Amino acid sequence: MKQSKLIKSIIVAAAVVAFGLPTAASADSGPVFKGASEKVQFTDLDIQKQAGAEQLYRRLQAASKRVCGVESLKVTGSIDGFSETRRCYHKSLGEAVAKLDNAALTKIHEG
């Protein structure tokens, strides 16, 4: 069971890395796409229970926002850049949830 949670932690980190996420911007060229990741730990959670799945989802949301730079127009430099980072956020979050393949987590994500 413990090994399974470790493997899932690694999968989540890989999901956030997938698809070359925007991590920086230059004033003259818009978002720069680079592979970036943030490891999301959840070995302390029981994601088979609703409360654990909800906590993991919040962690995945926060990691996706940080990696994609969603919260800062100054980083993206424009509304178009902001839209791109939002797409990055939704895609990376969706990929992480899909890779974990947990019914409770998927239900939270699909709202």
Describe it:
By secondary structure, the chain is mainly alpha-helical. The chain is built from 5 helices and 2 strands. A two-stranded antiparallel ribbon has the order 1-2. Helix content is 62%, strand content 8%. The relative contact order is 0.20. It has one domain (2-110).
In terms of structural class, how would the helical and strand content be classed? mainly alpha
**Treating each run of at least 4 consecutive H or I residues as one helix, how many helices?**
5
Tally the structural domains: 1
Q: Any idea what the radius of gyration is? A: 15 Å
Distance between the termini: 28 Å
Q: Determine the mean pLDDT.
A: 75
Low-confidence stretches: 17-33
Indicate the proportion of strand residues.
5-15%
Question: What's the total count of β strands?
Answer: 2
Strand order of the largest sheet: 1-2
Which geometry do the CA atoms define? elongated
For the sheet with most strands, the description reads: 2 strands, antiparallel
Percent helix among the residues? 55-70%
**Helix/strand order, N-terminal first:** HEEHHHH
Architecture blueprint of SSEs:
Blueprint: H1 2-17, E1 22-26, E2 30-33, H2 50-68, H3 73-76, H4 79-100, H5 103-110
Antiparallel strand pairs: 1-2
Helix pairs in contact: 1-4, 2-4, 2-5
Question: What attributes characterize this protein structure?
Answer:
111 residues; mainly alpha; two-stranded antiparallel ribbon; 5 helices; 2 strands; 8% strand; elongated
